[in-house]
Amino acid sequence: MAAVTELHAYRDEVAGCTRCALAAGRTQVVFGSGDPGADLMFVGEAPGFHEDKQGVPFVGAAGKLLDQLLSGIGLTRLDVYVANVIKCRPPGNRDPMPEEIEACEGHLWKQIELIQPRVVATLGNFATKLLSGRPTGITRVHGQEQETTLGGRRVLLYPLYHPAAALYTPRMLDVLKSDFARLPELLGREVAPPPEPVFLTAVTAEPAVQLGLF
Ligand code: URA
What's the pTM value of the predicted model, to 2 decimals? Predict the structure, then answer.
């Protein structure tokens, strides 16, 4: 099955997800939107009020800012794919809880596997910590790309401030804009294939010798 068809089939499956308690309070699952074959994927935190009602990520004030930032680098929402760590709205827009992230993260991994983006831009702390596998906060890592393996492929992970945080903090907005401006360069960058695994074979004992095993 082509990846696009598979992504749509997966979206339809996730529409009935009951992996965590957020299922009870949602209007609908907010799976993701945009080009299923995009080179650039954004990962935000969780749907808010408007996203829950419309079933599309980033349609509120933060979404408008995301649209403007994209336009600044010559892109629209149709050129990229946008998803969240959590697919259902937490009540009162509270932070996602660890057990909700744990229950939901499989959906995001599957999306990344099917979309096969070259650059994954994480928006804010929750997406950055989950996808980097590190506890370091966004203030320290924003704008610093790193090669990593996500969904079985090498990608550039690129942490950015969350647009909602930048909305009311002009200094943060300036930083977000300048970090955003590097996206075209990152999209053009070759990402090296993963390093070859080193097998200790019976044919030559050298690696094992080098490791001092004999
Ligand atoms: N903030 C997010 O992180 N995701 C959305 O979809 C909307 C706002």
Answer: 0.90
